[in-house]
Amino acid sequence: MVDIEIEIDGKVVHGYSGETVISIADREGIDIPRFCYHKKLSVAANCRMCLVDIEGNPNPQPACSTQSSFGMKVHTKNEKAKTAQKAVMEFLLINHPLDCPICDQGGECELQDVAMEFGSDISRFTEGKRIVDDKEIGALIQTDMTRCIHCTRCVRFGAEVAGIVEMGATGRSEDLKIEPFLSEGIQSELSGNMIDVCPVGALTSKPFRYGVRSWQMNSIQTIARHDLVGSNIFTQTHESKVKRVVARDNENINETWISDRDRFSYQGLNSDNRILIPKIKIKGEWQDTSWDDALDFAANGIKKHAKEGSQIGTLASKNATLEELYLLQKFTRGLGSDNLDYRLDAANPSNAKVLESNISLTELETIDHALIVNSYLRLEQPMINHRIRKATLNGASVSTINAKAFDFNYRISHSVLTSPQNTVATLSGVLKALLDKNSQTLPDYLNSVSVHQTHIDIANALLNAEHPVVVLGEHVNGNKCSDQVATLVSEIAKASEAKTLNASLTGNAHSAERVNFKPENGKNALQILSSDFTAFVLFDVYPTFDCIDSENAIEHLSHDDAFVVAMNSFDDESVLNCANVILPIASFYETSGTHINVDNIAQSYSASVKSAGESKPGWKVIKVLADLLNLQGFDFTDSSQIADKALSLTPNTSEIEVPISNSKMPNITTVWQYTPYASDVVVRHASSLQQTRIGQISEASVCKATAKLLELSEGDLYKGVPVNINESVAEGCVFVHTHLPRQC
Amino acid sequence: MISDQAKKEIDIWVAKYPEGRQSSAVMQALTIVQKENGGSLTNELKQAVADYLEMPTISVQEVATFYENYNNKPVGKHVIRFCHNISCMLNGSDELISYLEEKLDVKTGEISKDGLVSVKRVECLGACVGGPMCQIGDQYYENLTKKGIDEILEGLT
To answer: Which of A152, A160, A172, A181 to mutate to test the interface with B (most CBs of B within 10 A)?
Structure first.
């Protein structure tokens, strides 16, 4: 890259040779109108709106596809450029309807803005306008294809970013249409970004449709909390309701994209299922009550039922904020208990060392090989998967070790199907192959391990790569040998000099780790939920969905002698059954807080809207409860003070060695994965997401041999989920992918 | 969906392109399966071609709707592909197409009631010197007149 100097509108500006004129102009704040150009997409140069005059050129040139060269003199606003831009605008408006007053894009429309500046007041077009049928493309995107100006941004987005080519330009000339092949609904987990890239009102948000005009809303900068990326977003609010969520640029975190989960989950906040008033259970009957009474009831209940602090168990959602997790652990430990945990979905919440992530999101784009272990990354962590996809476009290869062959949006070069009980053996095989190649001495536990050709292939791919990465996903949480799997992943990374990325810490789990929201000597989540503790504190926990052994959990929580304080934002039958008091807390976007992402970046945000009904921010509820129980050190007046305190903590690093052994596991195991739209309570209540193709997924995949052993046939119900017999699943396990609550 | 014979023919075209660029053979593949299916394409066939060439179905659809030589609706036994581009138009193709429509009692893009003939307006077929012209099967008919059309129609069985 050579620095060059060019002149735009008489201003001397710098760029590098080969950089397009529009890109330099954008950086310099010189406005050039455009529709098809998008900084993150390839250059199509088909709308011609960005025509500029370049000295020495007889005709105006499109700024988006013209590369700058030394000494170039560009005029964006002289007579020649303006005439060209006006002419293009006139052509674009020929077939565009004049329906801005009833168009959702009105007020935030690129075409409207540019037409104001370059359009003519009077149309010279007297012929009939073209009308195009609207396409039904699912519950998230509303189409109005008559408004389409064929910029092909959505087509290029599908091909280049989402990796699933769904929209295309069919027909030709006057009959050209932008449409999907069949109206089956868009499949991509990033589809909502098409709404953002569409410069006109052809693709608009369906859940938002006709709700409120764009200029009536406030835009508030905040953070999406569903995954471990913490995408930057704007919540757009009107009359104390979140009406829409759109992406906010942050090159280091989410670039300009957000996942559909982050974009449409806000619908859940406005669901009818919110808890709005504090409730207490008296003689088995629920009563609405005031905050003072409910808090007194909760504090007295804890005092009475947990005479010894160690009789208290505290469980929190991993989507809670850093502040809430910090206060809750301080609260629990202040009462003299070390029984606290956030790993409700873990089959083995051990004290072993947590696999660290030592690669940043931007670095992920530069890797040349990725080994994905135990993860359907595309649906679990869309933005991380997007970075890996970008690396694959630059030539990186990807191999997987999973229970099922998943539908990734890039090619998988080596795939090993492995049931949970064989994961340790498979990873040991890869490690052995790596150490053999390096001529290193083998630790004892690898002596009896057999190495297959696929293990050698993966080892070779890792060793041949200059910047490899190993990604560990969330299926590991359900594995009884999760600590061994994590240890082996770490050893494999060491032997191949690979970076690691721990994608099993979903939601805001990094915050929970930071404040040590897990026991050092006390009981972990599984033990708490099988204990005979007399008091439990649940923070936004919904046992039927969240707990790995939900039946057992509910049974122990419903124990006659147990006093359960539940702080919840949504109504839930299992909570109603087991709790004694329910304190309604603010949900996403209703409370200030902090999210720590996979890069260890702590992002704080303020509340976008006030809490629903009488619910209150979680940190305030915990603080008042602590005050009522005379606990010291809760004199915070602002959540930022709590965040400062919490961020000054360092997580306990465990040095516990995990022996690799042939642990006894059942012959047939279940891998339970929720659809991305059932991953937390807010998104489960987002009705539009539930209607999408991803949201509707519900199948228990099993291979023929295993199906025979389990006596299952196609269409039977396995743990409430319809069975689908296919050979893409590892032998010895059932892969359940569903939006339905977990059954044991 | 695609017969073994058709697959063999497609493979010949796939082999002409570098490895991994098999989607370049999409036009020939569509031509082959269209011929086998009696002159038209169905969504299922396009899906099958996309699967066979490992490319997105919408990309096949883009090709199939862009070029006039693919029929996305069922056609008659004979397709009269009538040029309506500039040379033919100046020489009266519009009038002849109307004559044809009237005579066969069929609109362009539709099949005659006996299923024998369908008429399609197409872009330039490169025979401007002999306009107005049309193509039926592999045969060009040039310097057409109403009388000439009558004779051609009589010959179609």
So the answer is: A181
Cβ <8 Å between A166 and B56: yes
pLDDT confidence of residue A285:
93
* All residues at 6 or more sequence positions from A230 whose CB lies less than 8 Å from its CB, including other chains: A223, A224, A253, A595, A596, A597, A601, A603
**Terminal CA-CA length for chain B:** 29
Is A591:A321 a contact under the CB 8 Å cutoff? Answer: yes
- Best probe of the B interface among A137, A170, A182, by most B CBs < 10 A, is A170
Write the residue in B46, B58, B66 that is nearest to A167 by C-beta. Answer: B58
Distance CA A546, CA A526 (A): 12
CA distance A193 to A262: 11
The interface pTM score, or ipTM, of the predicted complex is: 0.88
Q: DSSP secondary structure string, A475-540?
A: GGGG-TTHHHHHHHHHHHHHHTT-EEEETTS-TTHHHHHHTT-S-SSS--HHHHTTS--SEEEEES
Q: How far apart are CA B122 and CA B74, in angstroms?
A: 16
**Of A533, A68, A69, the residue nearest A339 (C-alpha):** A533
Among B44, B47, B65, most A C-beta atoms within 10 A, so best to mutate, is B65
| Cβ within 8 Å, pair B65-A172 | yes
Short-list A608, A689, A618, CA closest to A262: A689
B61–A166 CB contact, under 8 Å: no
Asked if A172 has any chain B CB less than 8 Å from its own CB, the reply is yes
Does residue A166 sit at the B interface (CB-CB below 8 Å)? yes
B85 touches chain A (CB under 8 A): no
Q: What is the pLDDT averaged over residues A358-370?
A: 95
| Chain position carrying tokens 């297959």 | A452
Q: What is the pLDDT of residues A22-35, one digit of tens each?
A: 999 999 999 999 99
- Across the interface, which of B43, B47, B59 has its CB nearest the CB of A168? B59
A510, two tokens: 């990094």
Is the torsion defined by CA of A379, A384, A386, A390 positive or negative? negative
CB-based contact A168 B61, cutoff 8 Å: yes
Which two structure tokens, joined as six digits, stand for B33?
Answer: 């399966």
The confidence band for A105, taking pLDDT boundaries of 50, 70 and 90, is: very high
Give per-residue burial for B14-50: e unless 16+ CB within 10 Å, then b: beeeeeeebbbbbeebbbbbbeebebbbeeebbbbbb
**Total residue length of chain B:** 157
pLDDT in tens, B6-51: 999 999 999 999 998 999 999 999 999 999 998 999 999 999 999 9
Q: Which is it for strands A468-472 and A499-502: parallel, antiparallel or unpaired? A: parallel
**What pLDDT was estimated at residue A1?**
61
Q: How far is B21 from chain A (nearest CA, A)?
A: 15
Using CA coordinates, name the residue in chain B closest to A177.
B62
Q: Give the DSSP H or E segment for A487.
A: helix A482-495
Under 8 Å CB-to-CB from A36, ≥6 apart: which residues?
A44, A45, A46, A47, A49, A64, A151, A152, A153
Q: Token match 């993966």: residue?
A: A458
The alpha-carbon radius of gyration of chain B (Å, integer) is 17
pLDDT bucket at A2, cuts 50 / 70 / 90: low
Q: What is the pLDDT of residues A309-318, one digit of tens each?
A: 889 999 999 9
Query: Are residues B61 and A172, on separate chains, in Cβ contact within 8 Å?
Result: no
CB proximity A180 to B under 8 Å: yes
- Host H or E run for residue A313: strand A312-316
Put simply, the answer to whether A168 touches B62 (Cβ < 8 Å) is yes
- Single-letter amino acid, residue A501: L
User: DSSP secondary-structure letter at A469?
Assistant: E
- Residue A386: which H helix or E strand, with range? helix A382-393
